[in-house]
Amino acid sequence: MRVEKQVPIGDKRGLHLRVIRSFVERAQSFDSKIWVECQTAKADGKSPLEMMLLKGSPGAKLRIGAEGQDAEKAVETLVGYITNPDAS
Amino acid sequence: MRTLKGSGVSPGIAIGAAFVQESEGTRIPRKFCMPEEVPGEIERFNEAIVVAAGEVKRLHRNVTSKLDETAELADIFHVHLSLLEDRKLHDSIVTLIKNKNFTAEYAVSQRLSRLVKQLETSGDPYLADRTKDIYDLEHWVLNALVGEERESLQHLTEPVIVVAHDLTPSQTVRLDRERVLAFVTDAGGRTSHTAILARTLAIPAVVGLRNVSRQVSGGDTLIVDGASGEVILSPDETTLNEYRRLSREQADYGAQVNRQYCVLPGVTRDGDSIDIQANIEFPGEAMNVLDYGASGVGLYRTEFLYHAAGTVPDEKAHFDAYMEVVQHLGDAPVTIRTLDLGADKFPVDTDEHNPFLGCRSIRLMLRDKPAFRKQLRAILRASEFGNVRVMLPLVTTLSELRETKELIEDVKRQLRSEGVGFDEQIKIGIMIEVPSAAILADKFAKEADFFSIGTNDLVQYTLAVDRDNESVAHLYTATDPAVLRLIRMTLEAARANGVPCGMCGEMAGDTNCVALLVGMGLREFSMAPKSIAAVKRIVRAISTEGARRIADEACEMATADEVAAFLAEKTREILPQA
After folding, report:
1. In B202-314, where does DSSP find H-type helix?
2. Which of B19, B209, B227, B262 could pair with B293 as two cysteines, CB 3.0-4.6 Å apart?
3. Per-residue CA distances from B524 to B106, B266, B480, B502, B539 (Å)
């Protein structure tokens, strides 16, 4: 199963350290392969390093994708997190 | 032979062999390994990651057990840990070892350098900032790999001139003064902390050379002139002889000046007493302060307790350091400045886009009251044994002062209930280093026991110039008319309210500014110990009346350049060889 969804970065400071860390933590809990695209750059959602290299400025749109058994749940969780990182 | 020009930040001539410092202070002993050593190198790398992760976790535990609000700090550690555990990064380094026969150290260094370049060329300032995290990562892993040899600068076997891209304050602090003849760096400005430390340690230094580290190889002969800012690569025999002669002359003159002026009091020709004290960074300097002719310590910068320890100091660490200073100073005054952390000094929140205007110094301490209390308790306890004053950095509003005073009262209550002695009358003063404090000095004078003008930051905030930014460094001048007005305003407000006002910024140790400052009414100067003799010499050569005239004329001028030229001329008249 392959799922993809677009979501704007909800945190007004963009994709900063804390958000990356929490995102990667959540991503790693899923079996599916997870990727995140921002403009032309693509990162492995489970790699904090690659996530750091995305130019995630506030309001930028991320395309979060997953492929695997739990792909749907993965994308839902991650999109939910990015939309409102402070809620968690 | 080639001559490079940078900013000479610590005077002195050094002639010697270059020691080029590689990747953030850790020398890589070997770059390549034999094919049969590859599995062993991979093993070493895997182990190093585990050790490094352990170190990071240990430091994290240490820090979080001491500070209340640790969200940001904890995150930095979590990210470092995540990076250490990043599979892709790990695999790319193993690939380098396998395919290119790199040693573990070299593979780590190469991969991380490439990463740093990626971040720096991304065009995103936020990403460029992340390079600090990568350097930290490299530091952790290389330390785990290279082990005991890691602080290569501490294990030099012969005197050298250190050449580096940049030196952090903690690296500068740990330089072996016996072995380091001088240092030169690509980056840095006149008033960066590394430069200030160089002057305090009396190591000749030139910074801001842009790319000296790429032009020099280990072992090359260099001549460094810390006063003019010139660095000569591979000098010819004639030049070498000329500088050897100059170096001998300077040593003789320097010794002469020191011997003469240290013991004499700082008094102008018409009998006005000028109090001359010393700025220090670490307890070890206290020993020599009185020998240099200082009447006390006008500024004890305490943040170097952090740099030396690499972690948050506890109350005992603070107290031990203060006691060492107090014991050496006896009855002479010691002004302890509370932690001035943040921005360029020990960045705490790496998410800050504008750290100089962010959570630093007093703001940071008021946010972390448990940590603040530890330092305040230590200062109060030390006050029982000597003549101690507390000074608060970067105070911008009265409420910061009031909140701190309340906290100090609370700490006093706590100590009283524990039966621990301290100076009940301890004086609490503030640094005047932002425009708001100078402009509102009259109000501050009613609630602070003393002022100390911190020109380094005052100039920066008034002229909106980053003192470490090489491209605007020429705009940063303490003698700017706007700054002079703020200094004057502060001195007048202090005088009107009977509050002592001193100056501890670099301007106080500048011989060209002595007449100006005395003429404006400054009677308390604090500076790097090495500058004391020269400043005393000028103080004793001027008359207060003459100084007043110089100050009045300088304050009428409209540009910094005019003022600087005027003061240089007047100082030459006062002392032809100064």
Report:
1. 212-215, 237-262, 286-289, 304-309
2. B262
3. 53, 10, 21, 4, 12
Joined together, the tokens standing for residue B152 give 């290569």
pLDDT in tens, B347-402: 555 567 777 777 788 887 888 888 889 999 999 999 999 999 999 999 999 999 99
pLDDT > 50? residue B291: yes
Nearest residue, CB atoms, B82 vs list A16, A48, A55: A48
Instruction: Say how far apart CA B234 and CA B245 lie, in whole Å.
Output: 18
DSSP A15: S
CA distance A79 to B458: 46
Residues 6+ apart with CB under 8 A from B307: B168, B169, B170, B173, B346
Tens of pLDDT along B491-515? 999 999 999 999 999 999 999 999 9
Q: Specify whether the CB–CB gap between B18 and B224 falls below 8 A.
A: no
* pLDDT beyond 90 at B430: yes
Query: Per-residue pLDDT for B72 more than 70?
Result: no
Cα gap B469→B472, rounded to integer Å: 6
Residue B87 has pLDDT above 50, yes or no: yes
Q: Tell me the two tokens of residue A49.
A: 């390093």
Give the residue-averaged pLDDT of B95-108. 90
**A57 CB neighbour count, 10 Å cutoff:** 14
Q: Which residues of chain A have a CB within 8 Å of the CB of B124?
A: 55, 57
Active-site annotation holds for B318: no
Annotated catalytic residue, options B33, B359, B504, B513: B504
| Nearest CB partner across the interface for A44, out of B78, B88, B119 | B88
Other CB atoms within 10 Å distance of the CB of residue B270: 11
Cα distances from B413 to residues A82, B191, B416, B516, in angstroms, run 47, 39, 5, 44
Taking each helix axis from N to C end, the angle separating B87-100 and B38-64, rounded to the nearest 10 degrees, works out to 150
Q: How many CB pairs under 8 A join A and B?
A: 47
CA gap A81, A85 in Å, rounded: 5
CB atoms closer than 10 angstroms to residue B149: 13
